[in-house]
From TrEMBL:
<dbReference type="InterPro" id="IPR052365">
    <property type="entry name" value="THEM4/THEM5_acyl-CoA_thioest"/>
</dbReference>
<keyword id="KW-0966">Cell projection</keyword>
<feature type="domain" description="Thioesterase">
    <location>
        <begin position="120"/>
        <end position="191"/>
    </location>
</feature>
<dbReference type="GO" id="GO:0016787">
    <property type="term" value="F:hydrolase activity"/>
</dbReference>
<keyword id="KW-0472">Membrane</keyword>
<dbReference type="InterPro" id="IPR029069">
    <property type="entry name" value="HotDog_dom_sf"/>
</dbReference>
<keyword id="KW-0053">Apoptosis</keyword>
<comment type="similarity">
    <text>Belongs to the THEM4/THEM5 thioesterase family.</text>
</comment>
<protein>
    <recommendedName>
        <fullName>Acyl-coenzyme A thioesterase THEM4</fullName>
        <ecNumber>3.1.2.2</ecNumber>
    </recommendedName>
</protein>
<keyword id="KW-0809">Transit peptide</keyword>
<keyword id="KW-0378">Hydrolase</keyword>
<dbReference type="InterPro" id="IPR006683">
    <property type="entry name" value="Thioestr_dom"/>
</dbReference>
<dbReference type="Pfam" id="PF03061">
    <property type="entry name" value="4HBT"/>
</dbReference>
<keyword id="KW-0443">Lipid metabolism</keyword>
<keyword id="KW-1003">Cell membrane</keyword>
<keyword id="KW-0276">Fatty acid metabolism</keyword>
<keyword id="KW-0963">Cytoplasm</keyword>
Length: 205
């Protein structure tokens, strides 16, 4: 697994956030526009050439493989390629997860046309992505935990648009943390989730 240290201070981290964040937002917008456009054929071809040229510019210097997970000297994580939260990943919704002192974790996110499954509804796999990431972050609030089992009950279709997901730890059983959560629209719960998240063995195990 690719965990590396990034020797940069907060100011440099902020500078990079301000540089890459808007690029990612522009690409995310391009994805949405590509799905929904009704422009003429000639414009589609022209835009395709522009996008290909832009991609070639970015490819001039690339890292090998995925972005990995990097940490600053202050312990701040930089998971910018992550499919759920990645600042440099236009596929990520992106999720911004917050928590309170009582251990509730939640995220409010608007999922648009790029996340559609059944017409007008969020793809079931995308619901799973949101819940996996939120529940995993909740489970990892004390120490890192991997998803072992994720169980979802899709109670009704989740409409595209603004959504809220919540999670909390149900119980800890040694290396296992059981987390429960929900995904909701304005009318209530659409998906119920339960996950078993597992930490690395302790040295004595
Ligand atoms: C922000 C970036 C996020 C990146 C996440 C990466 C790493 C985490 C780092 C930081 C965390 C920060 C934020 C987290 C945010 C999101 C989390 C997303 C998480 C993921 O997206 S992660 C990708 C998908 N995930 C995998 O890729 C796992 C593949 N798999 C394995 O790596 C092993 O399979 C493992 C480790 C699961 C277990 O392996 P093991 O050898 O340690 O387990 P072992 O056999 O010793 O069992 C010990 C006890 O767990 C029970 N047990 C075993 N397996 C189970 C299972 N699957 N379900 C339910 N219970 C299970 C046994 O029954 C026994 O229970 P008991 O003690 O009661 O008998």
């Amino acid at each position: 697994m690719k965990f590396t240290r990034e020797d940069i201070d907060t100011q440099e981290l902020d500078r990079r956030r301000a540089l890459y964040g808007p690029l990612t937002a522009a690409v995310r917008d391009l994805v949405d526009a590509t799905i929904r456009t009704e422009v003429d054929e000639a414009v589609i071809r022209e835009v395709q050439a522009t996008v290909v040229a832009a991609t070639a510019k970015l490819r001039a210097e690339q890292i090998d493989g995925g972005f990995g997970m990097r940490f600053t000297a202050d312990g701040e994580s930089i998971a910018w390629g992550n499919a759920g939260i990645g600042l440099r990943n236009a596929i990520a919704p992106p999720l911004v997860i917050v928590s309170d002192d009582a251990g509730l974790h939640w995220t409010e996110v608007t999922l648009g046309a790029a996340y559609e499954g059944p017409p007008g509804l969020v793809h079931g796999g995308i619901c799973a992505l949101v819940m996996d990431h939120l529940l995993g972050t909740t489970a990892s609030s004390i120490e890192p935990r991997f998803t072992g089992t994720l169980t979802l009950r899709y109670r009704r279709g989740t409409p595209l648009g603004p959504l809220r997901a919540e999670a909390r730890i149900d119980r800890n059983e040694g290396r296992k943390t059981v987390v429960v959560g929900t995904l909701s629209d304005a009318d209530g719960v659409t998906v119920e989730a339960e996950g078993i998240f597992i930490g690395p063995p302790t040295p004595t195990e």
